[in-house]
Amino acid sequence: MLHTECTMRFDILTLFPDIFPGYLGESLLKRAIQSGLVDVRLHNIRDWSKGKHNTVDDRPFGGGPGMVMKVDAVVECVEAVRGQAPDPGHLIMLTPQGRRLDQPKVERLAEQKRIILLCGRYEGFDERIRLILEPDEVSIGDYVLGGGEVAAMVTIDAVARLLPGFLGDEDSSEYDSFSGSRRWLDCAQYTRPREYRGHETPEVLLSGNHEEIARWREENSRQRTQRRRSDLLAEE
Ligand code: 6GU
Question: Does the predicted model carry a pTM greater than 0.90?
Fold first, then answer.
């Protein structure tokens, strides 16, 4: 398989850019950034706010709890960041009201050359941000986070590992649960020692019989999926 590697660029728009360097600075993402496979840029939305107080949020019209992200700072930040590269990029807004991120969606995102991730805090975004920017609104699951930052990291992590050259040769994402047409959970894995506190590695995995091992793994995957996530089998 021949691949011309090209950089995928992520721009993160957030009020808390310091959340990110720790995660991006370890393990595979660190290596991918160092090698130029991915380029991650952080932008503080507050830098685009107006007035001496740099306000980025305000009380909602009509009253109610919490604060709302202001339209001007967010729109101007997105427009300025978009203009930093020839490709305007695919704009994602991270909110619990978005379409749920799943592996097919991650696979489609991995085809983009540039993704802009807009992270919200507070009670939400002024609705005109959606009307003006028409973002692809994404949620990572049915629970509420304090902000979109962790969801942005989840998105980058899931997308980046699909880029050719991100994983080592022996690891491959094509055998992942949920990838391509695969909808089963991964099978059980064992490594040395062969026995630990009376728990033995299944004999077949030590047999060297590759056909039997493949059969055992397939059956183990099916049983696990049945027991833990029978909803996945019902979808088939
Ligand atoms: Cl993307 N943001 C927030 N604040 N909460 C979430 C989420 C996003 N996805 C699930 N819960």
Answer: yes
Distance 138 CA to ligand 1 centre (A): 8
Peptide bond into 104 cis (omega under 30): no
Q: What is the pLDDT of residues 8-51, one digit of tens each?
A: 999 999 999 999 999 999 999 999 999 999 999 999 999 988 77
Cα–ligand 1 centroid distance for 123 (angstroms): 11
pLDDT in tens, 76-91: 999 999 999 999 999 9
State the closest ligand 1 atom to the C-alpha of 152, by its place in the atom list counted from 1.
1
Range of the domain at 134: 8-160
> In total, how many domains does the chain have?
2
How far out from the chain centre does Cα 131 lie?
24
* Residue to substitute in 140, 149, 156, 157 for testing ligand 1 pocket (most ligand atoms within 8 angstroms of CB): 140
**CA 41, CA 7: separation in Å to the nearest integer?**
13
Classify residue 114: in a domain, yes or no.
yes
Q: Which atom of ligand 1 is nearest to the CA of 142?
A: 10
Residue 129 and residue 156 in contact, taking contact as beta carbons nearer than 8 Å: no
Residues 149 and 49 in one domain: yes
pLDDT by residue (tens digit) across 106-126?
A: 999 999 999 999 999 888 999
CA of 152 from ligand 1 middle (Å) equals 9
